[in-house]
Amino acid sequence: MPPTDHEHVLRMGYLRSAAAIVGSGGTSLEPAVDGLLEILGGTRADPLWRAAGAVLQAALETRARPRIVAWARVTLADGLVAWRLQPLGADPDVRRALQDHLNTGDDRARVAAIKALAPVAHDQDVRSALLDRLEDPCDHVRSTAVEALREIAAEPDVRDRILARVDDPSGRVDRALRRTLRTIAGDPVVQRAMLESLEGGRADWIADEVLGAAPPTEALRDALLGILARGCPRSAAFRSCGCFVEVARAFLPRLSDPSAYVVQDALRVVGRGTTTEARQAVVDALRHPVRFVRVEAIRELQRHLDHPEAVAATLDRLRDEDALVRLWAARSLASRPEHRAAIARLLDDACPAVAIQSVAILCRRTPR
After folding, report:
1. Long-range contacts for 278-284 (Cβ within 8 Å, ≥24 apart)?
2. Could you read off the pLDDT of 19-46 as tens digits, one per residue?
């Protein structure tokens, strides 16, 4: 879709003028609203679409409301992509039109309608309609509904309906569930469901990620240790509880595993430990022969840079044989002014990428 004729005008202040007209409610209100509606329905510039939508939200409180609602209904019937009406979803008539659009036979149209309704998911009727879409035959529609319900996922009825989808065979729904359930990972009901899934079934990958985002509690620690004792192969679920001595210690043997991937996952748990034993284990991992394991060890040591041995070990990696490891060591130390001179030596690094990135690291006012 080509940019509309309004694009260049908007950049010169059209939106400011339209907002002033809407605020005053003068005789130019209708032409201004028509221009804004054209932008809302046609622009490819996201900031302009959002800005026009914000002004039209205000216009819904004026005499132009019937004009806006009529335009929304007609353009929906004519095939306008429904998500473009998202800024108008707060209006009850536009909302009903979008809800009706959820029953169309076109999968993409239902997806677009869900996206438009997401900001008003708290409305009882909208919530009910979105929950129904969790059973839609199209996996794209189901996954979009899971995402749209994220802001109200903590409500018991919504939470339970989302949890009922954890065995959905679609990878698209799987990814949406992970993102949504992470936001309510502290809910005891969610934790119980994820602990059950962790010991078997298709949802163990979801459980692994969600439990890893849960707040560390003694109850969760004890439950996870019980599962670990029964031979759980997962690691991500234990990350947040790595701060407990028992959990970090339980993963120390995995740091000697022949698989570099197992070692990397174990570091993400042990690195949360607060004991000298856990910290030294991460320092020792800096000598691992596989570079991505050394990078992971550097990243985990960032939590321990208030200890001299962690700082010394990271400084030593500035001379690592691998360019990526040297670069991650520089990034890790960039927030500490006393080590910027050591990082500056990388400006003469044999790898041009490391030298260039070192310039960027040293030039940041707030190092990352």
Report:
1. 278/242, 278/248, 278/249, 278/252, 279/304, 279/307, 279/309, 279/310, 280/309, 281/252, 281/255, 282/310, 283/309, 283/310, 283/313, 284/255
2. 888 888 777 888 888 988 988 888 888 8
